[in-house]
């Protein structure tokens, strides 16, 4: 249980600007704001597993399609129609692996690239070059293929949410129950079995149901 002294210490540790929204939503009452901060932290923690499941599922399916079409070393070859900005991110990932004295292979490169990289491959610059021949067959809903616009919009929204979680920002006000449903649905577009597995193990519903 917190004491007034602990509350004061937390203000110094967390900073008043970081607590700004929590204070505003708690009527300026510090103890209530810190309780809200703690709740936000619990919600953020619970989201790690669902977000991880979606990210790993997405990147592995995209990688599989890229490897099938352009070869196992698609990240090195010029065969894949990648933009200079994307190539720059790939080069940075391989340089980072080299500096860390880690092997540069398909598995390590795929793991080194962040969620934003994979979401970029679903964006407008690749709507004609990558989506129709390579990615369009991955995403289905109701037995029908989905448009790149719908997929990219959802994945980009979840990328932004993931970054908020990673940077310890407030998410309690973003309708986390709906975001959780969006994660499950987006995963199901790729692999319904994986989506069911994520839902089974997710702690988000339990945390949200706890006052």
Describe the structure.
The protein is mostly helical and 211 residues long. It has one domain. 69% of the residues lie in helices and 2% in strands. It is built from 11 helices and 2 strands; from the N terminus they run αααααααββαααα. A two-stranded antiparallel ribbon has the order 1-2. α3 (30-70) runs antiparallel to α10, α8 crosses α9 and α9 runs antiparallel to α10 (192-201).
Please give the largest β-sheet.
2 strands, antiparallel
Whole-Å distance between the termini?
16 Å
Could you tell me the strand content as a percent range? under 5%
> Count of DSSP E strands?
2
Shape: globular
Q: What is the mean predicted local confidence, pLDDT?
A: 95
Low-confidence stretches: none
Helix content: 55-70%
Question: Which sequence of strands runs across the widest sheet?
Answer: 1-2
Structural class: mainly alpha
- Helix-strand topology string: HHHHHHHEEHHHH
Rg over alpha carbons: 20 Å
Tally of discrete structural domains: 1
Number of helices: 11
């Amino acid at each position: 249980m917190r004491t007034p002294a602990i509350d004061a210490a937390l203000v110094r540790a967390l900073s008043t600007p970081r607590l700004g929204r929590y204070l505003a939503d708690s009527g300026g009452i510090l103890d209530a704001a810190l309780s809200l901060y703690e709740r936000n932290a619990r919600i953020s923690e619970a989201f790690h597993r669902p977000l991880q499941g979606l990210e790993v599922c997405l990147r592995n399916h995209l990688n599989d399609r890229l490897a099938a079409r352009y070869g196992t070393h698609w990240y090195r070859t010029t065969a894949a129609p990648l933009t200079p900005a994307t190539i720059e991110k790939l080069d940075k990932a391989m340089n980072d692996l080299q500096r860390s004295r880690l092997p540069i292979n398909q598995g390590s490169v795929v793991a080194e690239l962040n969620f934003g990289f994979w979401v970029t491959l679903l964006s407008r610059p690749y709507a004609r070059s990558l989506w129709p021949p390579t990615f369009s067959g991955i995403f289905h809903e109701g037995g029908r293929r989905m448009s790149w616009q719908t997929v990219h919009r959802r994945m980009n929204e979840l990328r932004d949410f993931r970054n908020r979680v990673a940077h310890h920002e407030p998410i309690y006000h973003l309708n986390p129950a709906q975001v959780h449903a969006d994660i499950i649905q987006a995963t199901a577009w790729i692999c319904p079995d994986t989506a069911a597995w994520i839902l089974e193990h997710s702690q988000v519903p339990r945390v949200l149901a706890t006052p």
